[in-house]
């Protein structure tokens, strides 16, 4: 089972909103928390952030519950499957990737078309999605494959993705107090993963592109558009990760012609979640609305598919 605090966070929210809670074990030690019915026509598969160090925070169910309700209001047949995964010190790479693949295969094997699965991850959750794409394009030994059956995912949303773990790009040194993350914390979190990989010596060097998308070779993502025709990347003007995100974006766009980039002015890291960090109730951030509009369009587009 997931750690009791994570279960409590999820169940407390669902109870407060009078929604039915449902947890599902999906293999490799991972679990899925559901928002909405499991047989919905479209599923948002969500991977939360936290630097692979922090467990599920109580602001995640609140944010995802809001997305679920807004899509329901707009008449979209939609549910959310949020991955509960292992964190440090119990999650050496590539365990979280394995948990992600196991959960997605569980959805697909239950009859859900990959075209109706929309992947979304914030910060290190976005990192995991890029690990997944990298693994499909460049399979890792001892990591299971994913049962896409030549079908692409419906879409991908990367919210302030963590694409470099060394915290050394210029934006990391422009600390203005407008981002809730600091360089010291980012560097410490990155070291948790990078030190583990470094312990393998030369044998671990080939793993850099899987973990740090901004440092991948120019041709690393060749073929990625066939895996997910539509990608949305969001960022905040004042976040420390901004230079890394935009460096990655520039390279990624050379291999994917349908990438939408949304930069929110005056915003910090993962702005849609920031209100939860600070116990505010405003859900009208421009990035949040962009994500809702994006999901509505992409989900309704699948209505034309079998």
Automatic annotation (TrEMBL):
<dbReference type="InterPro" id="IPR013094">
    <property type="entry name" value="AB_hydrolase_3"/>
</dbReference>
<keyword id="KW-0378">Hydrolase</keyword>
<dbReference type="InterPro" id="IPR050300">
    <property type="entry name" value="GDXG_lipolytic_enzyme"/>
</dbReference>
<dbReference type="GO" id="GO:0016787">
    <property type="term" value="F:hydrolase activity"/>
</dbReference>
<protein>
    <submittedName>
        <fullName>Alpha/beta-hydrolase</fullName>
    </submittedName>
</protein>
<dbReference type="InterPro" id="IPR029058">
    <property type="entry name" value="AB_hydrolase_fold"/>
</dbReference>
<dbReference type="Pfam" id="PF07859">
    <property type="entry name" value="Abhydrolase_3"/>
</dbReference>
<feature type="domain" description="Alpha/beta hydrolase fold-3">
    <location>
        <begin position="44"/>
        <end position="270"/>
    </location>
</feature>
């Amino acid at each position: 089972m997931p750690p009791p605090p994570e279960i409590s966070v999820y169940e407390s929210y669902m109870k407060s909103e009078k929604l039915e809670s449902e947890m599902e074990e999906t293999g490799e030690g991972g679990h899925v928390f559901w928002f909405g019915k499991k047989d919905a026509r479209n599923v948002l598969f969500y991977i939360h952030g936290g630097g692979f160090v922090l467990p599920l925070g109580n602001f995640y169910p609140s944010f995802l519950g809001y997305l679920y309700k807004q899509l329901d209001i707009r008449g979209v047949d939609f549910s959310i499957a949020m991955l509960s995964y292992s964190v440090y010190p119990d999650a050496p790479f590539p365990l979280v990737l394995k948990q992600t693949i196991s959960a997605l295969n569980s959805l697909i094997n239950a009859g859900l078309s990959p075209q109706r699965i929309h992947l979304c991850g914030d910060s290190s959750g976005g990192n995991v999605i890029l690990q997944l794409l990298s693994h499909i394009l460049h399979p890792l030994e001892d990591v299971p494959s994913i049962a896409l059956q030549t079908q692409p995912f419906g879409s991908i949303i990367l919210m302030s993705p963590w694409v470099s773990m060394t915290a050394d790009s210029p934006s990391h040194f422009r600390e203005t107090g407008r981002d809730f993350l600091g360089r010291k914390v980012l560097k410490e979190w990155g070291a948790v993963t990078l030190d583990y990989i470094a312990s393998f010596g030369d044998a671990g060097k080939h793993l850099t592109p899987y973990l740090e998308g901004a440092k991948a070779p120019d041709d690393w993502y060749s073929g990625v558009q066939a895996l997910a025709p539509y990608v949305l990347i969001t960022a905040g003007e004042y976040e420390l990760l901004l230079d890394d995100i935009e460096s990655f974006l520039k390279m990624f766009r050379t291999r994917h012609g349908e990438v939408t980039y949304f930069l929110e002015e005056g915003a910090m890291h993962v702005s849609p979640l920031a209100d939860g960090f600070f116990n505010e109730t405003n859900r009208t951030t421009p990035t949040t609305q962009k994500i809702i509009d994006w999901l509505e369009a992409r989900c309704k587009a699948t209505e034309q598919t079998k």
